């Protein structure tokens, strides 16, 4: 089943925004709940629309993308980061692991994010706005930086990389340069950005023993995007840094708003002069 297109997400966001505006006019608990839910789903639909639209833009200025990819490859080797090529070779030797990894990369990131947002909304409503804001800020950063073209490892066969998903008959992105997908937008990894939000969010808002699911999702996503040669390690590290910046921005804005709303201690009123009776 294909993912919804950007224009379908745009229609959904618009309809839900209208529903939220109309529902706010009614002073009834159910109407207020409907307005709140419609508003949040409209925002998520809008962010999804931006993500899909960025992938669909007919960008043709790939100049420098391969050079930047090769620079990242050399830089990672100089600082001794793990080799994506070794991970991909291991997958090629273990077909079952390759199948699971490719499927995880292709299908889990969006459902995991949606489940996280619903869980936060229902179980941790006080924490939900913070992570919703972090998602919006981080996604905006990612979509902006992606216009600096960077080739992913799978598009640099001269370095030994290949598209393992395509070789398995599961071509996720299609031919490069067709405009059907954003092939030269490896930096940063929005897969990692969203997985980091899920991972850090789940780990910090609950004390349940099952909170390990959040960081585990982040680790598995890191493995999936690197081992399939869809991203460089640096793409993921930059994405995580952007999540940290988004958290700082949200905290800073909250602190600023709190200070402005804090009531100032009123100065004591001057004593009322006593009336002097005149005779």
Rounded Rg? 24 Å
What's the structural domain tally? 2
The beta-strand count equals 0
Strand content: under 5%
Tally of helical segments: 11
Task: State the order of secondary-structure elements, H for helix, E for strand.
Answer: HHHHHHHHHHH
Roughly what percent helix?
55-70%
Major sheet summary line: none
The gross shape turns out to be globular
What's the end-to-end separation, in Å? Answer: 98 Å
Molecular structure report:
By secondary structure, the chain is an all-alpha fold. The protein has 11 helices and no strands. It folds into 2 domains: 1-56; 62-170 and 182-255, no CATH class. The chain is globular, with a radius of gyration of 24 Å. The longest helix is centred in the C-terminal third of the chain and has 29 residues, at 233-261. Helices cover 65% and strands 0% of the residues. The chain has helices at 6-23, 29-56, 65-78, 84-93, 95-107, 109-123, 128-145, 164-167, 190-205, 213-227, 233-261.
List keywords for this structure.
disordered C terminus, mainly alpha, 279 residues
In short:
The protein has helices at 6-23, 29-56, 65-78, 84-93, 95-107, 109-123, 128-145, 164-167, 190-205, 213-227, 233-261.
List the helices and strands and how they pair.
Blueprint: H1 6-23, H2 29-56, H3 65-78, H4 84-93, H5 95-107, H6 109-123, H7 128-145, H8 164-167, H9 190-205, H10 213-227, H11 233-261
Helix pairs in contact: 1-2, 2-7, 5-10, 6-9, 7-9, 7-11, 9-10, 9-11
